[in-house]
Design brief:
- By secondary structure, the chain is α/β, with parallel strands linked by helices.
- Helices cover about 25% and strands about 20% of the residues.
- The chain has one domain: Metallo-dependent phosphatases (Purple Acid Phosphatase, chain A, domain 2), CATH 3.60.21.10.
- Helix 4 links the parallel strand 6 and strand 7.
- It starts with a strand and ends in a 6-residue tail after the last strand.
- This is Metallophosphoesterase.
- It holds the Pfam family Metallophos.
- One of its GO terms (molecular function) is hydrolase activity.
Length: about 230
């Protein structure tokens, strides 16, 4: 059994917003499915780091979620900025159960134990300079991240964080998010949101003692990345 992660699937099987019109996204659904089935077994865990479906309502996600459910593994969904279908936890859980989507789960201000690791997840926030509301939202998202890490308090192994927004991007840093990571001794953080030419400015390396890694689907060439357990000696 293993843990995998990928973000920003941007599925639109029940709508009319195909990503194939963008460079590098041609036949992306078929490519994703082929890579997924080659790598992932039913016993594996997969973290989906936001922007999973373009659907505007929860009911409109059905075709996208049915595809994900048909793929191997237990999947945990994090909220992204384009997940307009996102709703209350109770409504989402009820929707997944009612539609037999038993391999899909919500990871939001919470954590899950898998393969000797405690996997924490929430949306996060990218600090945009000049936006008056950003500081308030950033403080709220930092609190949500702390809730997620707290949820892993009694779990075994390394706590690994998955966010949608990058805490560090180009010359911008969400200091409040980074501070929570550092305070809790988080060593690894995976994030999505960044695409195309923007990937050149994404951090794939260490910052303030935390290893960051971009996992947006086009950056990964639509192939989920395996999250290896760190073995201490």
């Amino acid at each position: 059994m293993s843990v995998f992660a990928i973000g920003d699937l941007h599925l639109s099987l029940g709508g009319d917003k195909p990503m194939d019109v963008f460079p590098g996204w041609q036949d992306y659904v078929a490519r994703l499915e082929q890579n997924w089935r080659a790598l992932i077994s039913p016993e594996d865990t997969v973290i989906l780091a936001g922007d999973t479906s373009w659907a505007m309502t929860l009911s409109a996600t059905l075709a996208d979620f049915q595809l994900i459910h048909s793929l191997p593994g237990e999947k945990y969904l994090i909220k992204g900025n384009h997940d307009y279908w996102w709703n209350s936890r109770a409504k989402m859980d009820a929707y997944l159960e009612a539609n037999g989507l038993t391999s899909l789960h919500i990871l939001h201000n919470s954590a899950v134990q898998a393969e000797g690791m405690a996997l924490c997840g929430t949306r996060g926030w990218l600090f945009e300079k000049g936006e008056a509301h950003d500081q308030k939202i950033l403080a709220r998202e930092a609190a949500r991240l702390q809730m997620s890490i707290d949820a892993a308090r009694d779990m075994q192994g390394e706590r690994v964080v998955f966010l949608h927004y990058p805490p560090v991007y180009a010359d911008e840093t969400s200091e409040e998010i980074v501070a929570v990571l550092k305070k809790n001794g988080i060593r690894r953080c995976y994030y999505g949101h960044i695409h195309s030419t923007g990937c050149a400015y994404a951090l794939n390396g260490e910052y303030e003692g935390v290893e960051f890694r971009l996992i947006s689907s086009d950056f990964l060439r639509f192939s989920p990345i395996k999250i290896q357990q760190i073995v201490e000696f």
